[in-house]
Design goal:
This protein folds into two domains: 328 residues, Cytosolic phospholipase A2 catalytic domain (3-Layer(aba) Sandwich), CATH 3.40.1090.10; 93 residues, EF-hand (Recoverin, domain 1). The protein is 44% helix and 11% strand. The protein has 22 helices and twelve strands. The radius of gyration is 24 Å and the shape is globular. 40% of the residues are buried. InterPro entries: Acyl_Trfase/lysoPLipase, EF-hand-dom_pair, EF_Hand_1_Ca_BS, EF_hand_dom, Lipid_Hydrolase, PNPLA_dom.
Length: 481
């Protein structure tokens, strides 16, 4: 069992590790979050941060690398503002035509060379060395950086860190981590002792939110956790490299940030959306092209209000059901008592029963016509209503597949979301700042000024909400194992 880390109501300086989720264009919101973390004393305006260890995937890895070499929140925010991903990609007619040819050989349209070059220049400004390695960062600044990368050939997540890849240039690792499949070309590199050339892509494919990366012994620099001390013989390697063994001990000093748009599935999205200020501001200061294109987002607050009313009715329904339950099933008589219970407001009754008579309602519940209602049938009814199922609770909704774009998007989403179920657990809510980016999604790289300001405000408000809460899991989503 990993102990829970409910520290946000205490001294924020207990946090020493910062882990950032990937999110493409949504990463602009990190600027607002980082500025608020500076107010809390975790980051510094001069780049000498209280945080000692930084980690991330994709755009989170890019931001983490900048912080680790000494960039301030204001400086990082300016980088995010001025360098949307569209400025990192070549857009000439020749390059676009060439990309259609290259996509079959390098598995993506855009080269990541501009990213590597730009990041190298940023790193050089602070350290004097564009090809600063993980080991050199640790030696010169006493900072650790973990960059998450997906190794396609070996079908696994790789953790680039001073302990695992000391001599790899940071910008090369970040270049790999930010290579969104299809959008960017996969990176070919020979990093393994066997000399084989592997393909590397976006770390977010298998581990988009590596909140666990500083848990356990695997990336610990303590002498007792060195590979030599941990692995005594070859037969120990497989056992020690299992995910549960490498990252077993929960690290209460880790703080993470996740990014999700209103239209995207996200681990614990329903829980995060309950946090105060999460959905503020509701819109950008001016109607941008992107905002106008996303008509549904304008009505989201109304949709959320309707959903909350329905969920409230379902919660009362569950409570009354538990009181009447005398066995593993509910009899017809018990269901009738529930149906007539006076604790339902008229609004809740209308939302839940929709004008059905008792006989119609019972028939809807009793799917197999055996005269009783099983728990499975109760859940089926709840899912039919569209609220509070396990899937909804975790934030994973069904997606309609209508064309190639939605097919590919959902396929990638399935990989990312299922990796979240593997790598995350409910107690991680207690150490997670959650930024709802509203109408702005991962691939919305052409942002206007008002869009960027909206993202930064959302980031700041989400971070304030986290630290204002005595216990981040007070929304009821965190569970004891």
């Amino acid at each position: 069992m990993r102990e829970s880390a409910t520290m946000s109501g205490k001294n924020p300086l207990v946090y020493e590790n910062l882990v950032l989720e990937g999110g493409g264009a949504k990463g602009v919101a990190l600027g607002g979050a980082l500025k608020y973390l500076q107010k809390m004393g975790l980051l510094s305006g001069d780049g000498n941060h209280h945080i000692k260890r930084f980690g991330g995937a994709s755009i989170g890895a890019l931001v983490a690398s900048l912080l680790s070499v000494g960039y301030s929140p204001d400086e990082v925010s300016k980088v995010l503002y001025s360098n949307s991903m569209s400025t990192f990609t070549s857009g000439s007619l020749f390059s676009i035509i060439a990309s259609f040819y290259e996509v079959f050989w390098q598995y993506g349209f855009h080269s990541t060379n501009p990213i590597k070059k730009s990041l190298g220049e940023y790193i050089k400004q602070k350290t004097g060395n564009a090809d600063l390695t993980f080991k050199q960062l640790y030696s010169s600044r006493d900072k650790e950086l973990c960059v998450i990368v997906t190794n396609v050939n070996r079908l696994k997540t790789e953790y680039f860190h001073v302990k695992t890849t000391p001599d790899t240039p940071i910008r090369e690792a970040v270049r790999m981590s930010i290579s969104i499949p299809g959008y960017f070309r996969a990176i070919k590199s020979k990093l393994k002792a066997d000399g084989e050339e592997d393909l590397y892509v976006d770390g977010g494919m298998l581990c988009n939110y590596p909140i666990h990366c500083f848990d356990g012994w695997f990336l610990s620099m303590a002498k007792e956790n060195s590979f030599f001390n941990r692995i005594k013989c070859l037969s120990d390697i497989a056992k020690h490299y299992e995910q549960n063994n490498r990252f077993k001990e929960f690290n209460p000093k880790t703080l993470g940030i996740v990014l999700y748009s209103e239209s995207e599935n996200q681990w614990m999205k329903d829980c995060f959306n309950k946090r105060a200020l999460c959905l503020k501001p509701e819109r950008p200061r001016s109607s941008t092209d992107l905002y106008c294109k996303r008509d549904k987002s304008r009505h989201k607050s109304e949709e959320i209000g309707q959903y909350d009313k329905l969920r409230s009715a379902v919660e009362v329904f569950f409570k009354v059901c538990q009181e009447q339950l005398s066995d593993s099933t509910l009899s017809k008589e018990e269901v009738k008592i529930i149906f007539e219970d006076e604790r339902f407001t008229q609004e809740q009754r209308d939302a839940l029963f929709e004008g059905l008579t008792f006989e119609e309602f019972f028939s809807k519940l009793d799917e197999n016509d055996d005269g009783a209602v099983q728990f499975r049938e109760l859940l089926s009814f709840i899912e039919w209503k569209g609220v509070y199922s396990g899937q909804k609770y975790m934030g994973f909704d069904r997606k309609n597949i209508t064309d190639l774009k939605t097919f590919v998007s959902s396929l990638i989403g399935a990989l990312v979301q299922n990796s979240q179920l593997i790598n995350l657990q409910p107690k991680d809510v207690d150490r997670t700042i959650a930024i709802n980016t509203g109408y702005i999604g991962t691939l919305d790289f052409d942002l206007e000024g008002a869009d960027q300001e909206f993202l930064e405000q959302r980031g700041s408000n989400a971070t304030k909400a986290f630290f204002d809460m005595k216990n981040p899991s007070e929304c009821g989503c965190s569970e004891e194992n």
